[in-house]
């Protein structure tokens, strides 16, 4: 660990310790889950074009009894829209579906290196930011080589990199690299394979000692390590329990013990950013 705040980017942009994932939140039920999450206390909401739920997310945001200025609404640019002409229209459409004057945080969903248009996509995000369509720009599933290439090409460094990160795939090197660069790390699927993970002896031991649920232990592990966890929960009680873990921190020994659960094949579905294509 260093003295650098892991939840503040190189340009001063700051994220809360935990956000609300919305994958598979669709229709009225999805909108209700987003609204409930905001009213429970979430201020970071994570969506994507490919989740096919920007409308539900926007509806939930607009219906929540919370000032819009307190929220950070995130979406992601799909791989099939990396070309500049497609990217800018896609960003405009995402803004309309979300019903916002500007997207608070826009990410490139995957680099898709075999297609090799992620630099062009990054240039489009910069243009969208300069036009006022979005406020902050970042990436998802980028490796250091991808991050360095887009910064070398444009002089602009992402504020966020959202990556797969959970105890079975702890991404220690990526966390350290991001912190060194002033890039906030967001963790998708932060609870991993919850069924397996929640029965791990080290997780259940810490839960019993601290009077926590296994999910809260894992979310506290994220917070202590400096990654913004984005768990998905539709039920307000689960949302509240997850969010309570944002204020929890584990001891260094307990962090190391949970991190030791990492596996060589820890990815949930084998999606290596060097080869994976997400259109």
Automatic annotation (TrEMBL):
Xref: Gene3D superfamilies: NADP-dependent oxidoreductase domain
- Output the PROSITE patterns linked to this UniProt entry: ALDOKETO_REDUCTASE_1 (PS00798), ALDOKETO_REDUCTASE_2 (PS00062)
> Where do the NADP-dependent oxidoreductase domain residues begin and end?
28-261
Keywords assigned: NADP, Oxidoreductase
Recorded hits in InterPro entries, A to Z, give: AKR, Aldo/ket_reductase_CS, NAD(P)_OxRdtase_dom_sf, NADP_OxRdtase_dom
Query: Which family does the record assign?
Result: Belongs to the aldo/keto reductase family.
Please report the name of this protein according to its UniProt entry: Aldo/keto reductase
Q: What organism is the protein native to?
A: Microbacterium resistens
């Amino acid at each position: 660990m260093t003295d650098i705040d892991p939840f503040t980017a190189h340009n001063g942009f700051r994220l809360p310790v935990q956000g609300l994932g919305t994958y598979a939140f669709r229709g009225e039920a999805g909108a209700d889950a987003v609204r409930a999450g905001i009213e429970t206390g979430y201020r970071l909401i994570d969506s994507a074009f490919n989740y096919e739920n920007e409308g539900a997310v926007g509806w939930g945001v607009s219906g929540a009894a919370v000032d819009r200025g307190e929220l950070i609404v995130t979406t992601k640019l799909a791989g099939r829209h990396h070309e500049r002409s497609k990217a800018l229209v896609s960003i405009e459409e995402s803004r309309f579906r979300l019903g916002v004057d500007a997207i608070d945080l826009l990410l490139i969903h995957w680099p898709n290196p075999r297609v090799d248009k992620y630099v062009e996509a990054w240039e489009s995000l910069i243009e969208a930011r300069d036009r006022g369509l979005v406020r902050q720009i970042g990436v998802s599933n980028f490796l250091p080589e991808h991050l360095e290439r887009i910064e070398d090409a444009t002089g602009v460094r992402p504020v966020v990199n959202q990556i797969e990160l959970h105890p079975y795939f702890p991404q220690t090197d990526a966390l350290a690299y991001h912190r060194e660069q002033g890039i906030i790390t967001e963790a998708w699927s932060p609870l991993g394979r919850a069924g397996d993970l929640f029965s791990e002896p080290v997780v259940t031991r810490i839960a019993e000692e601290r009077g926590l649920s296994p999910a809260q232990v894992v979310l506290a592990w994220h917070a202590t390590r400096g990654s913004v966890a984005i768990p998905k929960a539709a039920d307000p009680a689960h949302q509240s329990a997850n969010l309570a873990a944002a204020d929890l921190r584990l001891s260094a020994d307990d962090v190391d013990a949970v991190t030791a659960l990492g596996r060589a094949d820890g990815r949930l579905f084998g999606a290596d950013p060097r080869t994976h294509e997400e259109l």
